[in-house]
Design goal:
This protein has 508 residues and is of the alpha/beta class. Helices cover 53% and strands 19% of the residues. Strand 2 (130-135) and strand 3 form a beta hairpin. The protein binds ligand C2E and calcium ion (2 copies).
């Protein structure tokens, strides 16, 4: 183009300049609009992500911190203590019986319970403590201060659970187990929650409803228990259980009236494991239902086998508190009796006094069903609970079984003798039979008979023995120590005497 062109045509130059200006303004406007949009978007994004993060830090049901929110607070606490000194404690709080209540009352009630628990935790530990919900029935608290402060807080939490939880028509009791770990005393940040949880499990191992602080020995104890529970889970399938039987003897005729069923676990490495060790574990870890069912079925099967070979033997099965709360326990026993062709009066349910006195609707309903079904009910470990006459009268019990502790002290202790005397007179007033367990000496036996006990059971007569051994004792010429065994097996049973409506099973 000719360089003099714009001077010769000034209008064209101006037009071009104006077009460039308009273009520049347009570009600038577009850029400004885009920036504003981006700014608005990023503000919105920030708002949403802030909302999301605060939401994920709070548990929707209880309003407490979630585990991730709690972890962030823990990190801050650790930094504070590291830079300024001092200490803080983590309290791991686990409800003892929440799973059971949740199953019994349903999830709606379970949620309300958790809300109440959360409120109580916040109220009793104060606004400075941080609380979080870790899992369904598990919480954690951060309390500022050393172990003494942690213990005071834990004791306050235990006390706040003493008051029952009430809403609508439901009133129930909850307890909790608390493990305490302190920073920096119990080690690094990474191990803190684990240590508090270990201490909590150790409390559960010892019956729950208490608190304790972490100790290095606990890790081993808890690990061993976890292994044992795992093995217990498989024991049924692997056929490691066996029933042992111990005879109950009539104090006057010295005839056998029944055989108490006592469970044994043949552990591949530990040998014979005592039910005192594994029944509480089975109860705590939800295994007692399946194990209890097996005991009932197997006891009926053995009793039917004996009957086929000419022995009429009533079996007494120990029923745990957990089984009493199952709503179909009686139906299951009836079905087992029916399958094995046995009468209900042939089956004794041994239920401990403390369980029998539980005033829960489910337990009382089970007792009512037992009465209707015609089972023989025995109140076990009697004298250790707090029975009232009125409560005893309501139960369909046929016998009281005096706890071994009183029998053991009988020869030396006047107090033990007067307790046995009182139990005998209570039983007489209620037309119940009295059985004394744990009889080991002739002296105890004589005293019990003179005090009016109706039946005796203990090593003096026989140790608990396998079914075949009991059968051999009965059918061979062998005799139980001090007892005429054979004739009693063919005579009428106590159940038939107590319930004249029930006839003994016809012999084949
Ligand atoms: P328990 O029902 O009070 O049973 C009596 C315990 O005393 C048995 O212990 C028995 O072997 C023992 N024993 C019997 N005679 C004597 C004696 O003369 N002296 C002494 N020192 N002890 C005697 P075992 O078999 O170890 O059972 C302990 C507990 O385990 C039982 O106490 C019962 O509560 C529970 N248990 C056993 N089998 C079962 C079961 O199948 N189901 C449930 N739920 N619990 C069971
Ligand atoms: Ca018993
Ligand atoms: Ca007992």
């Amino acid at each position: 183009m000719n360089p003099g062109y714009f001077s010769e045509h000034p209008g064209v130059g101006l037009g071009l300049a104006a077009a460039c200006l308009v273009l520049a303004v347009c570009v600038l406007w577009l850029y400004w609009r885009e920036r504003r949009r981006n700014l608005r978007l990023s503000l919105e994004l920030k708002r949403v992500s802030h909302q999301m993060s605060t939401q994920s830090e709070r548990d929707e049901l209880t309003g407490l911190l979630t585990r991730s929110g709690f972890d962030a607070v823990l990190d801050t606490q650790v930094q504070k203590v590291d830079s300024a000194g001092g200490a803080f404690c983590v309290l791991y709080v686990a409800l003892d019986n929440f799973g059971l209540l949740n199953d019994a009352f349903g999830q709606g009630v379970g949620d309300r319970l958790l809300k109440d628990v959360a409120q109580r935790l916040v109220q009793c530990t104060g606004p400075k403590a941080e609380a979080c919900r870790i899992a369904a029935g598990e919480f954690a608290l951060i309390v500022n201060g050393a172990l003494a402060v942690g213990r005071t807080a834990a004791s306050r939490v235990i006390n706040t659970f003493a008051e029952s939880f009430k809403f609508d028509l439901i009133q129930t009791q909850l307890s909790c187990s608390i493990g305490i770990a302190s920073y920096p005393e119990h080690g690094s940040r990474a191990k803190l929650m684990g240590h508090a949880a270990t201490a909590m499990r150790s409390v559960k191992l010892n019956g729950g409803s208490a608190f304790c602080q972490y100790d290095v020995k606990m890790g081993v104890e808890v690990r061993e228990q976890a292994i044992l529970v795992n093995e217990l889970r498989n024991a049924l399938e692997l056929g490691q259980f066996e029933l042992y039987f111990q005879p109950k003897i009539d104090a006057v005729s010295l005839q056998v009236t029944a055989a108490e069923v006592l469970l044994r676990w043949h552990h591949p490495e530990r040998g014979l494991v005592s039910p005192v060790l594994f029944i509480p574990l089975a109860e705590r870890y939800g295994l007692i239902g399946a194990i209890g069912n097996w005991v009932i079925e197997e006891a009926c099967r053995k009793a039917a086998g004996w009957r086929e070979r000419g022995l009429r033997m009533r079996v007494a099965v120990n029923i745990s508190g957990y089984q009493m709360r199952e709503d179909d326990l009686v139906e299951r026993i009836e079905a087992a009796l029916h399958r094995n062709g046995l009468q209900p009066g042939r089956f004794t349910c041994e239920i401990t006094e403390s369980v029998a006195m539980e005033d829960t609707k489910v337990t009382q309903l089970t007792f009512d069903k037992m009465r209707k079904a015609g089972f023989h009910v025995s109140i076990d470990d009697f004298g250790t609970g707090y029975s009232s006459l009125a409560a005893l009268r309501r139960l369909p019990a046929a016998e009281l079984k005096i706890d071994r502790a009183f029998v053991c002290d009988l020869e030396e202790s006047e107090e033990a003798r007067s307790i046995v005397k009182s139990i005998v007179s209570v039983a007489a007033a209620l037309h119940l039979r009295v059985v004394a367990e744990g009889v080991e000496t002739v002296g105890q036996c004589d005293l019990l008979v003179s005090l009016g006990c109706d039946e005796l059971q203990g090593y003096l007569f026989s140790m608990p023995v396998p079914a075949e051994e009991l059968e051999r004792l009965a059918l061979d010429e062998h005799r139980l120590k001090n007892v005429e065994f054979r004739p009693s097996l063919f005579s009428s049973t106590l159940a038939a005497e107590l319930n004249p409506g029930l006839r003994p099973d016809p012999l084949p």
